[in-house]
Input
Amino acid sequence: MEKLIDVVQIGNQIWTTKNLSTTKFNDGTVIPNVIDDEQWSKLTTPGYCFYYNTTDVKAQKKYGVLYNWYALEKLAPAGWHIPTDAEWQTLSDYLREDAIARGKINEAGNWQLSDVGAINESGFSALLSGYRQINGYFTNQSYSDNWWSATMSDASVAYAYYRTTSHYPDYLPRYCINKTCGFSIRLVKD
Output
């Protein structure tokens, strides 16, 4: 498990300021690195990858790992956890209004189209790492950052909630998606 040294307090919560980049569970077991698109699309067990399966260590460190939802259970070290949908909402509420939250968490200089509104006032430092779709294809690096919530959807056991930031819409919305997708992880202190 990687050492968590970069944290920020936002309201009453303490968040990591980087996307998780461990390739092992908190018990030291290696998480399967799934690079094949078809294999990724059929996963119902834990898996991870790097965006476009990059081997560039600098990019891996900067953007972190993309995990499917099945990997969440044993990722967080003692004293930390994957945030629930309610904890994401607490973050959003603290940043006052969803309509301005995006700019307060996005680091300036990482937008492909524009840095307008990206002030990272909160210190959260979102870097727009993109995601891996259910079909295994990669998309949206430099356009969005997407983070899993520990909360499953009531509609189906195959779906869970996530939060996103992007150029449009200009807020921090919540969506529900298939657990096979690959998203980033942030941790919040217990």
Observations:
- The two ends are 17 Å apart (CA to CA).
- Residues 7-189 form one domain.
